[in-house]
Amino acid sequence: MNSFDIVKTEEEWKQQLTPEQYFVVRQKGTERPFTGKFEDHWEPGVYTCVACGNELFTSSTKFDAGCGWPSFYEALDKTKIYEKLDKSHGMVRMEIMCAKCGGHLGHVFNDGPSDKTGLRYCVNSLSLDFKKDTTSKK
Ligand code: FE
Q: How close is the Cα of 12 to the center of ligand 1, in Å?
């Protein structure tokens, strides 16, 4: 499972991340719905991996899924996201991880907007950072 470009010890991750970020990103935890800072955040820009800075999603593909977590219908680039079958908690889901550092992001579901990709990348705010698009007029 150590096929990621960025490999650190758990001690190193613990030092770099806040305890809340560590719980989600390294221990595959989930933040409580409607509590994350990007759940209701609509500025134009790029969402990056909080652990390694990998650019993961753009604001143009973000939509209000009403589920309590930031949701995107498409990844910035398919190669940026690593998908892994997750059978934990009595469910069968597709986990999504940062392809660069292996950080847990959330899950991808098939109930996204049907006029787009039909996918919903459901991501923890704690897994993300945000780079504001300074060239946009809006
Ligand atoms: Fe990462």
A: 14
